[in-house]
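Our platform keeps sequence and structure together, in a single record for each protein. Such a record has a labelled line for the sequence and another for the backbone structure tokens. Nothing more is needed to write down the fold, since each code stands for a local backbone conformation. For reference, a complete record is included directly beneath this paragraph:
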Amino acid sequence: MFGIGELTILLLVIVAVLAVKRLPDLTRSAGKAARILKSEKRALRDEDGDGPRSSPRVIRRETTERDS
């Protein structure tokens, strides 16, 4: 009969053969997830104002009250 070492090697070979068929789909979905995460991070940074700051926007003929 097979020992533990042979069963482990056989299991790894079976997993590798089955994974080869799904590997392109997995890498494609990982790339999509990375792009989504990057765009969401950029959107949050722009929304929060943590990005590079430019000079303040001046609106003429409009006054605002400052909070103390």
Summary: The helical segments are 4-48.
